[in-house]
């Protein structure tokens, strides 16, 4: 079931991205030859106007074929009324014949569509009741059904070895025979000290079963820890207009955080300090989708929005074969006042695509290793 849900999410996110390119290209009068659902081999197709809508066997996203994306393509010929060869009347509708600012908008439109989708999904989440930290104040609306939730668990930490996972709700804590009625991050931190084991009660997902575990704090350079980050999370259910306002605010906040996190990851990788433990590929994503699905539909919406933001930001990187790389080539052409050599641009993009595929294979292999 997790695999099917992941494929559906990936299909929607990529199709929304490609629809951004499709919509803006059409608006600027550029001919779009094909909008593909999934990747070849082709199962069947439908022709509507000048665009072929194809349905393909591999359901991992989609693509658009925009007329004249490759400036190396020779001019197409057509038959005139007298049977002579004439230049295709659509020649001026080629992508690379359009102004640079129009090309830039078309390339950026896919990324923008993913941001819009994330905003929409978060807004729907707020209307349905989105899990929200009590630290995020929403004017005139209180967060209800508050619990102390485990946000993340460090690998091989005492909490991880005891079985705690992100998303678990801590509802009971006891040390030295003393329990507390009010559970907060400060409560847990006050009990993480040298001494006896800490007894923690928690519930997971929709399962009402009460689980009890014992955790012995670990001495880490003079500081005692159990290896979790936590926050008090409740449900915020908002009216439509406020939901869209808060959805936009949350999208902006997560986008900033994602940019900072990606910058840190790339910086550490260039300094030789990077680790694949911070990166999750398709196999790992299937597991995360399964966890989100168990917690409920709203969690799945939020997860999809997060992936949409990540997809947008990664596509903006100035790396060959990505939208950001093509935007970077446009900037170079604008500065030098002439078009880049198509053979060089195509070669660089091909190399970049190969590197991305190799990186994906490496990350996927690492995901599989972590399963064992």
UniProtKB/TrEMBL annotation:
InterPro entries: PDZ, PDZ_sf, Pept_M50_Zn, Peptidase_M50. It comes from the Bacteria. Its main location: membrane. One of its GO terms (biological process) is proteolysis. Residues 118-206 form the PDZ domain. It comes from Candidatus Nomurabacteria bacterium RIFCSPLOWO2_01_FULL_39_17. The chain crosses the membrane at residues 6-25, 104-127, 344-365. Coiled coil: none annotated. Its cofactor is Zn(2+). This is Zinc metalloprotease. Keywords: Hydrolase, Membrane, Metal-binding, Metalloprotease, Protease, Transmembrane, Transmembrane helix, Zinc. It holds the Pfam family Peptidase_M50. CDD domains: S2P-M50_PDZ_RseP-like. Belongs to the peptidase M50B family. It is found in: Membrane. GO terms for molecular function: metal ion binding; metalloendopeptidase activity. One of its GO terms (cellular component) is membrane. It is an enzyme of class 3 (hydrolase). PANTHER family: MEMBRANE METALLOPROTEASE ARASP2, CHLOROPLASTIC-RELATED, REGULATOR OF SIGMA-E PROTEASE RSEP. It is a multi-pass membrane protein. Its EC number is 3.4.24.-.
């Amino acid at each position: 079931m997790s695999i099917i849900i992941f494929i559906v999410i990936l299909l929607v996110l990529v199709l929304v991205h490609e629809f951004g390119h499709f919509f803006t290209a059409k608006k600027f009068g550029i001919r779009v030859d094909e909008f593909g659902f999934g990747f070849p081999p082709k199962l069947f197709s439908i022709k509507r106007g000048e665009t072929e809508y194809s349905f393909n066997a591999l359901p991992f996203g989609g693509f658009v074929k925009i007329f004249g994306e490759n400036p190396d393509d020779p001019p197409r010929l057509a038959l005139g009324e007298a049977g002579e060869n004439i230049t295709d009347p659509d020649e001026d509708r080629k992508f690379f014949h359009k102004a640079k600012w129009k090309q830039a908008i078309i390339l950026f439109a896919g990324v923008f569509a993913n941001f819009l989708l994330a905003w929409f999904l978060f807004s729907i989440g707020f209307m349905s009741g989105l899990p929200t930290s009590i630290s995020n104040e929403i004017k005139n609306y209180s967060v209800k059904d508050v619990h102390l939730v485990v946000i993340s668990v460090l690998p091989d930490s005492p909490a991880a070895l005891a079985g705690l996972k992100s998303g678990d709700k801590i509802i009971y804590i006891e040390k030295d025979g003393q329990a507390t009625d009010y559970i907060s991050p400060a409560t847990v931190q006050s009990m993480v000290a040298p001494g006896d084991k800490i007894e923690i009660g928690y519930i997971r997902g929709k399962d009402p079963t009460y689980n009890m575990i014992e955790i012995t704090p670990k001495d880490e350079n003079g500081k005692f820890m159990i290896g979790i980050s936590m926050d008090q999370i409740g449900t915020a259910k908002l009216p439509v207009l406020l939901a869209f306002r808060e959805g936009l605010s949350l999208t902006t906040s997560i986008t900033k955080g994602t940019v900072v996190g990606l910058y840190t990851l790339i910086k550490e990788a260039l300094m030789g300090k990077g680790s694949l433990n911070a990166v999750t590929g398709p196999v790992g994503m299937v597991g995360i989708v399964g966890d989100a699905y168990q917690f409920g539909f709203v969690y799945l919406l939020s997860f999809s929005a997060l992936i949409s933001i990540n997809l947008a930001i990664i596509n903006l990187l100035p790396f060959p074969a990505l939208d950001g790389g093509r935007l970077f080539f446009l900037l170079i052409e604008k500065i030098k006042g002439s078009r880049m050599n198509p053979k060089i641009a195509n070669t660089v993009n091909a190399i970049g695509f190969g590197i991305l595929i190799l990186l994906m294979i490496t990350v996927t292999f690492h995901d599989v290793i972590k399963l064992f």
